[in-house]
Amino acid sequence: MSAALLSSISLxxxxxxxxxxxxxxxxxxxxSKLQQTDGSRLAVIRDVETACREIGCFQxxxxxxxxxxMEGALxxxxxxxxxxxxxxxxxxxxxxxxxxxxxxxxxxxxxxxSYLKHYAHPLxxxxxxxxxxxxxxxxxxxxxAVEIRRVALCxxxxxxxxxxxxxxxxxxxxxxxxxxxxVNSYPQSTQxxxxxxxDPHSDYGFITILLPSCPGLEVMDPKxxxxxxVLQPEDTLHVHIGDHLEALSNGKYRTVVHRAVLxxxxxxxxxxxxxxxxxNEKVRSAEELVDEQNPAMYKESxxxxxxxxxxxxxxxxxxxxxxxxxxAAE
Length: 330
Ligand SMILES: O=C(O)CCC(=O)C(=O)O
Ligand SMILES: [Fe+2]
Prior knowledge:
This protein is α+β, with helices and mostly antiparallel strands. The chain is about 30% helix and about 20% strand. It has helices at about 30-35, 40-55, 65-80, 85-90, 125, 135-160, 245-250, 305-310, 320-325; strands at about 5-10, 25, 30, 55-60, 100-105, 115-120, 180-185, 195-205, 205-210, 215-220, 225-230, 235-240, 260, 270-275. The strands form 2 sheets. It has an 8-stranded mixed β-sheet with strand order 3-4-12-9-14-7-6-5. Strands 1-8-13-10-11-2 form a 6-stranded mixed β-sheet, with no helix packed on it. The longest helix is centred in the middle third of the chain and has 26 residues, at about 135-160. The structure holds 2-oxoglutaric acid and fe (ii) ion.
């Protein structure tokens, strides 16, 4: 399967239906208020709880990452995809456990995406594997990786607090967790009928933070099952709840199904920063959220289990979160 390290396909119609989808008003989280200790943090924690429970995503303002760092990462991504084929080819491999992997095999079918994936934390351990071309890639993507991780850690602590578990619930496990960057490139849509860039899926992990160069993301409204396009104002970050947070929350929060469509005016790059526990660390439903009325709904699993799941799921087209549901058919 050419799919991502992180994603698992579900509910996939092959092409986007004609007509413009409605846009969804995203809940907005003021990150600067999470730094405060008074009632304004608690008010934001309540907003986080509502967003995670109702739609599984939100947008973040006042996160403190400068425009130049965000634009630098997007231009480094763009320059990588425009670099000579030979420099990209060295990262092409069917082995999903490689520290860096480039794939453009989705091009030309009925969907269209090239991507580069690599781990990013601890940076000093992984950066040596990243592309050398363009020369600014390591510096600019490295700066962004460090900054976005700071935001991600703070958001994950806030999410734990919003679940009533307390922000220190996982001890140092979040700090020791993985960060994986999925750097995506999509062509501009043409008249050829190809409109889908990335199939519907939910992301592995606790949260994904997405930075795109222009619109193209759609999320499925969990209540109506209708696709909604996401408007992401400049300088905001878009956050998705992932499969492992659904499992930890014992289903209180729902992983969000999303896809990318091609933009009719521009080619597009996006950077998805995926955050979760360490490779072999098992995630299980929090005991505090399990009782007689709410029995544990998910099997325990780790990122390693997810990597093992991908090839075994090659022909079954099952989503990872469905495979974790207790009582689900094998
Ligand atoms: O490019 C996008 O808008 C979505 C990317 C995405 O969902 C992913 O990389 O998992
Ligand atoms: Fe995704």
